[in-house]
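Example record

The entry below shows one chain as it appears in the dataset: sequence first, then structure tokens.
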Amino acid sequence: MLPQDFVVEEIPAYSPCGDGEHLFLWVEKSGMDTPQLARLLARELELPEREVSYAGLKDRQALTSQFYCVPARVERKVSTLHLAGAKVHRWVRHRNKLRTGHLRGNRFQVRIRDVQNPEAATGILAQLGRTGFPNYFGPQRFGAKGNNSALGKRILLGERSGDSRFERKLYLSAYQSLLFNRLLAARIEHGTFEQAMLGDVMQKLDSGGLFLCEDRPAEQERLERFEISPTGPLFGPKMPQPGGEVAEGEDAVLRAEGLTLESFSGGRGETAGGRRAYRLPLGNAGLRQEDKDLWISFELPKGSYATVVLRELMGD
């Protein structure tokens, strides 16, 4: 797949207001990841790297557009920037610095080349629109060699030390993600992906609020309207606890790993714990045929992976 076959546009959490001490740059890039371009901007604008910020990471092998934030004092230099592999399309002032997580999600357009059966893709996309998509962590989460999660488990077991704080967080979050994916896969296998279960920790999809499912029929109706979703565990001592059969299933996964919830205290602040939605609606999905190729477009909330949606469509 060529970079221009995978187009990603950030959906900001808010629009810059037009005045203030910070400058938001809308930048299109290809062939470099988000931190690489941040370092390049810092060098070209003669800024410390800490003064260049962004809301989220974007793929290297893609054509991506997103906001970067720099101090407004360098505004005069922006118009003369010449960046290899990137272009600043516009810039607007804002009163607050752009920080990690300040985005609603991402809009994707993906070209699938030489499609033999486009009707099948149409049917699968329609099904995902009805059922939602499984909110797996994508393969990027587990590193180029796929062993980040194994390294995270070794840290929890006290078999590995000496990693930087960044590496610890990377490996431990990969291990949490692996266990989440296993439980989501079990939910699909057991036919409960689209069902509310007593004891589920439910998430309100508009606000992110969590609550325990105690009235299954009532919550099932809300689930079918995509108002709420069951959640899976990001194991840790501060994780909101499920009840009943759901808790038994999560405990069984930990026992199979030779761990308990308290084992994650060994990850210190990197594994405090949390919940993640299992099932999400696919936003503004569409298909467009171009000769033998198929363009697929959709929107995802922050933290969700386009590779997961593409896997559902491709049947991999």
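Notes for this example: The chain is about 30% helix and 25% strand. Residues 1-132+283-316 form a domain with the Pseudouridine synthase fold (CATH 3.30.2350.20).
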